[in-house]
């Protein structure tokens, strides 16, 4: 599990401290910069999951300028504006940069936390997932963003040992712990779309890179950390065809 990495562009140190404190209390990792020069350095040296931009930096709408630079440089990171500016002209200019939200100061804490969730969902094309009733995760081929209490955590797909499914619910058994999400096996296979995950049983998906031993006659797979999962006859042929070897 990784904390979401959030970049904050805010030149008011007091407001930056308040915002950072809120985000870190909810276990987000925060990097604070005070101008777009520092912001440009950061986005080119580290991967961020989210950017929160003040619009007016040193009296100029440089938050908008930075958003335009992200687009010009083809740096794809979801971002939102957090500003005290209520000017319609500024808003019209800001919306053309396609932010995921536009929040006015003083902000409501829950509003901001919800906005972060919605931005992650929308950016990954899975609306009404983390914050909705259908599931509690955004799923991609490399990372999962899972709702855990009031925060969103980032789970590297490579750390998943196996996925156990019961009806419309999945347990993700990872190196660092387990996560419970509301999703059927057929749906998680579709949205995960990762060739490293193979079905070994009607209720199990296994990360083949985590396989340590396979026992055909015993219908058993041993994974790293000695996890044991069933291996039904229905799926053995596929493993053999792909060149995996058995004991």
UniProtKB/TrEMBL annotation:
Entries under PROSITE patterns matching the protein: HTH_LYTTR, RESPONSE_REGULATORY
UniProt domain Response regulatory: residue ranges: 5-120
Entry's transmembrane regions: none
Keywords, alphabetical: DNA-binding, Phosphoprotein
Single GO MF descriptor: DNA binding
Keyword DNA-binding: yes
Pfam families, per database record: LytTR, Response_reg
Domain HTH LytTR-type, residue spans: 144-245
Modified positions (4-aspartylphosphate) in chain numbering: 54
Official protein name in the record: DNA-binding response regulator
Organism: Kordia aestuariivivens
């Amino acid at each position: 599990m990784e904390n979401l990495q959030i970049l904050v562009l805010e030149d008011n140190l007091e407001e930056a401290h308040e915002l950072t404190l809120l985000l870190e209390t909810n276990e987000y990792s925060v990097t604070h910069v005070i101008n777009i020069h520092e912001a440009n350095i950061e986005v080119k040296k580290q991967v961020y999951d989210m950017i929160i931009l003040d619009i007016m930096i040193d009296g100029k709408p440089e938050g908008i300028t930075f958003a335009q630079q992200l687009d010009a440089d083809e740096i794809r990171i979801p971002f939102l504006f957090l500003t005290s500016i209520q000017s319609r002209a500024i808003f019209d200019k800001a919306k053309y940069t396609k932010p995921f939200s536009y929040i006015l100061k003083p902000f409501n804490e829950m509003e901001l936390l919800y906005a972060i969730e919605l931005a992650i969902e929308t950016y990954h094309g899975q609306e009404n997932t983390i914050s909705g009733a259908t599931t509690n995760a955004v799923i991609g081929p490399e990372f999962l963003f899972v709702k855990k209490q009031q925060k969103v955590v980032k789970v590297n797909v490579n750390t998943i040992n196996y996925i156990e499914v019961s009806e419309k619910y999945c347990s993700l058994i990872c190196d660092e712990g387990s996560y419970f999400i509301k999703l059927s096996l057929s749906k998680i296979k579709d949205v995960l779309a990762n060739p490293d995950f193979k079905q070994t049983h009607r209720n199990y998906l296994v990360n083949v890179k985590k396989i340590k031993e396979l026992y055909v006659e015993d219908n058993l797979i041993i994974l790293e950390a000695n996890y044991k999962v069933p291996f039904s006859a229905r799926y053995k042929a596929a493993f053999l065809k792909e060149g995996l070897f058995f004991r």
